[in-house]
Design a protein that fits this description.
- This protein is α/β, with parallel strands linked by helices and 267 residues long.
- It has two domains: 7-106, Ribosomal protein L30/S12 (60s Ribosomal Protein L30, Chain: A), CATH 3.30.1330; 118-266, Alpha/beta knot.
- 37% of the residues lie in helices and 20% in strands.
- It contains ten helices and twelve strands.
- The strands form two sheets. Strands 8-7-6-11-9-12-10 form a seven-stranded parallel beta sheet.
- Helix 6 runs parallel beside helix 7 and helix 6 (128-141) runs parallel beside helix 10.
Length: 267
């Protein structure tokens, strides 16, 4: 007979359930509580593998055996465990079809690197799918740090967490305003480049030396880079599009540029 660990809660009005619902629904709550909610077994496993600090786990009795193994492991490390009926889990979840597991974790806090090498700056990226894909690609490309600027979607929102596939817990991230970014760049020795990816002007990305310490700016989906981003950039780079398209998806553009850095540095 399967054993179901943890405290049983059946009411959506329970304070612990309301706490999780607030985290799922509100960026303000996530920032104030310094917590976010991961949905699903695979993402939860990735977060734990990356040593994320788990604060609470909620699961339903229809959770898979693989999920129950994770729940029991978390309980053994003294993480509070809550069991809920399937219908209550469906009401709590931010997805249309819940996976029977919610993990509340504490986002990691990162400091700026002492020595800049390979930094990605995201300027007003608002689409959750694009943001998550960019973070996942940045982790794969070995980006040293991702900086998000005001106007970007919350990197710990449920949709971004799903699209990022756990990248939020493996890659350093920092939210800064442009004045802080400019000050950070000015303190770096050797005047490192800060390259803004544009669609219509600039040097072809493969003609720029990306083997030296530098940063890449990726502008927003609708309006491109902000005026503040353009002022901070030292050079514009472009991705040629012989097919005549006006622009590339922000996540695609970011991936091309990041892996051009990888290509140059591993050639």
């Amino acid at each position: 007979m399967t054993q179901f660990p943890g405290e049983l809660i059946t009411s959506i009005k329970n304070p612990k359930i309301q706490y999780v619902r607030d985290l799922l629904a509100s960026r303000k709550s996530r920032e104030q509580q310094n917590a976010c909610v991961i949905e699903g077994v695979r993402l939860a496993e990735e977060a734990i593998k990356a040593n994320a600090n788990a604060l609470m786990v909620i699961y339903s009795e229809s959770l898979s055996e693989r999920g129950l193994i994770l729940v029991n492991a978390l309980q053994n490390t003294k993480v509070p465990v809550i069991r809920v009926p399937d219908d209550l889990m469906a009401k709590i979840s931010a997805t249309e079809t819940d996976q029977g597991l919610l993990l509340v974790v504490e986002p990691k806090i990162y400091t700026l690197p002492i020595k800049l090498d390979f930094v990605l700056i995201l300027d007003e990226i608002k689409d959750p799918g694009n943001m998550g894909t960019i973070l996942r690609t940045a982790a794969a490309a070995g980006v040293q740090l991702v900086i998000t600027t005001p106007g970007c979607v919350d990197v710990y929102s449920p949709k971004v967490l799903r699209a990022g596939m756990g990248a939020q817990f493996t890659i350093p991230m920092k939210a800064l305003i442009w004045a802080e970014i400019a000050n950070f760049w000015q303190t770096q020795p050797g005047s490192p480049g800060l390259y803004l990816t544009e669609t219509s002007e600039g040097s072809k990305v493969w003609e720029v030396d990306l083997t030296k310490p530098m940063g890449i700016i990726i502008g927003g989906e609708a309006n491109g880079a902000s005026e503040e981003a353009k002022k901070c950039a030292t050079e514009f780079v472009t991705i040629p599009m012989p097919g005549g398209s006006e622009s590339l998806n922000a996540a695609i553009a970011a991936g091309i540029v990041m892996f051009e850095v990888v290509r140059q540095r591993t050639a």
